Amino acid sequence: MSDKSQGKQDKQGKHEVFVISVAAEITGMHAQTLRTYDRMGLVSPQRTRGGGRRYSRADIEALQEIQRLSHEEGVNLAGIKTIIEQQNRITDLEQENAALRHRMAEMQEQLRRAEQGGAGQRSRGEIVHVPRSTAVVMWEPRRKRNR
């Protein structure tokens, strides 16, 4: 088997990439169909410097899902594009939600530590309102000088 049919590994050896003819063979689609899907934005493979398409395993799976939606579910390409966009949006929102939950947990932990640390200790300063001003400043009493 040649390198083209087996796929190539990237510089780190983490994932395989396939030329368009191999991707077409794997998915059972015509290469022109893959080009059309690329132009439509349904699947956007990586490009070489020369402009050649390189399909990852994730791209192959996306192509197979497109084929399933089209043939088994009867969804047209515009509907498939909308489905893919919504799935991507859901993924983005789930990641954002997870990041926000993580940040909230960090803030709650900081608040808990601040509340526990403040109990039984004298505050270093107080927040006071300065009349005729909208500014809020931190006031600390002067420390006694040792002479």
From TrEMBL:
GO terms for MF: DNA binding; DNA-binding transcription factor activity
Q: What InterPro entries does the annotation carry?
A: DNA-bd_dom_put_sf (IPR009061), MerR-type_HTH_dom (IPR000551), MerR_fam (IPR047057)
Query: Which residue windows are coiled coil?
Result: 83-117
* CDD domains in UniProt: HTH_HspR
| Ranges of residues in domain HTH merR-type | 17-86
Which Gene3D superfamilies does the record cross-reference, listed alphabetically? 1.10.1660.10
**Sorted UniProt keywords:** Coiled coil, DNA-binding
Instruction: List the Pfam families hit by this protein, alphabetically.
Output: MerR_1
What is this protein called in UniProt? MerR family transcriptional regulator
Native species of this protein?
Answer: Corynebacterium anserum
